Amino acid sequence: MSEKLTVVFDLDGTLVDTAPDLAQAMNAVLQVHGRGHVPLETVRQMVGQGARALMAKGMAATGAPADDALLDRLFDEFLAYYIDHIADFSVPFPGMVAQLELCRDAGFAVGICTNKPEAASHRLLDELALAHHFDAVVGGDSLSVRKPDPEHIHETVRRAGGRTGHAIMVGDSGNDIDAARNASVPVIAVSFGYTQIPVRELRPDVTIDHFDEFWGALEQVRITLAP
Predict the structure, then answer these.
(1) Domain holding 80: CATH number?
(2) Which domain range does residue 182 map to?
(3) Mean pLDDT, each 10-residue run in order, the chain (227 residues)
(4) Is 215 in a helix, a strand, or coil?
(5) What are the backbone angles phi and psi of residue 102, rounded to the nearest 5°?
(6) Any catalytic annotation for residue 68?
(7) How many domains does the chain have?
(8) Entry pTM
(9) Which terminus of the chain has a lower count of CB atoms within 10 Å, N or C?
(10) Does 169 lie in the same domain as 72?
């Protein structure tokens, strides 16, 4: 019997279109601090390094950058608002749920490796009734490191019950692709996520434009794994 495959997904911009709620939370905090509004399409290009980095980018885009002490406060304010509105407008990307079901039916282990805080990740998955699809969720604050550090992926695979020599990463940004490369894991990229650089230019193993293409891409990269 072949070894069980572990499929590790990024969350924001890969599985779920969370940008509308992230933008709403960021702009609510910016408004409290007398700053202007950041358009949704701009926020889509800011996501990926976690909430603290998102607020740092939002402050820099609307005036003077925030120092570390202010960023700590902004981070707390952002999370408080965001948790209460985490799924007001966030939705799974089209076709994604069907592919998760195929992974489960095939007996794969499935995990999430995200720079989003772990509690917020669980809350989002619960609100969208997606939590049952995943064997492990490792957030940006779950470890002392996070993507693009390879240990973030390694630990996700371990918690899901797999082995990184038989795992695949799925993401939408340079952070995901760099983490996969650092972990020696093949990577599928989605073109509809959050990145300033078109994801094909980052040279993932395969790029898909819709989750309907996911299973074919999975099989394409799976054959590169050791038996």
Answers:
(1) 1.10.150.240
(2) 6-17+90-222
(3) 85 97 97 96 87 94 96 95 96 98 97 95 97 97 96 98 95 96 97 93 97 97 83
(4) helix
(5) -65, -40
(6) no
(7) 2
(8) 0.93
(9) N
(10) no
